[in-house]
């Protein structure tokens, strides 16, 4: 079946602009995660959704970052007033449910470059 | 607080030799431990996990890992390396006591020379 998909694959934007990054999880997966991966680093947790609600948003770096999952499937990560330090690969992952023993299925990522 | 350490940025092995990629962790409760692999231009892929039970877990592509609670380690191993195993490997931990965060190590790049 289809895996996790993310669009766009690449996004170049100017400092101060607003961007939206989209994630389509595996059908039926209720848990959805967003991570940020900078060069030479492992994925850094941003936010976790169980269904439609954000169960843990403690990884969002500041209030310029926001994410939604209105129907419990597709999720959008929104970044306002982008800064050059936001440049990274943004990864989305899903798993069948929240219990910690399920592995996560990752999408290919969106490479965000802020100029 | 949860943390993961992968002490080696890079591991070099010859094809056919055994390989080990090291990982140590810190959690307040019992750990759920994972290994993921990232090939060039591809997303992270799950390799194996330890949840409970037998300390030696086997995963995809002939990889295995041993959970050692006293040393808080979860080293990844393979008896005979292949050139195609060359990739970036990430260890990850989640606290079974609650919370939803999975913490990843910085990654170890494995080079297998023919």
Primary descriptors:
heterodimer; A: 115 residues; mainly beta; 7-stranded mixed beta sheet; 4-stranded antiparallel beta sheet; 0% helix; globular; B: 114 residues; 6-stranded mixed beta sheet; 12 strands
Polypeptide structure, described:
The complex is a heterodimer of chains A (115) and B (114). Chain A is mainly beta. Chain A is built from no helices and eleven strands. In chain A, strand 7 and strand 8 form a beta hairpin. Chain A is globular and about 40 Å long. The model of chain A has no long low-confidence stretch (mean pLDDT 94). Chain B is an all-beta fold and 114 residues long. Chain B contains no helices and twelve strands. In chain B, strands 2, 5, 6, 10, 11 and 12 form a six-stranded mixed sheet that branches. A four-stranded antiparallel sheet of chain B has the order 3-9-8-7, with no helix packed on it. Chain B is globular, with a radius of gyration of 14 Å. The relative contact order of chain B is 0.34. At the A-B interface, strand 5 and strand 10 of A face strand 5, strand 6, strand 10 and strand 11 of B.
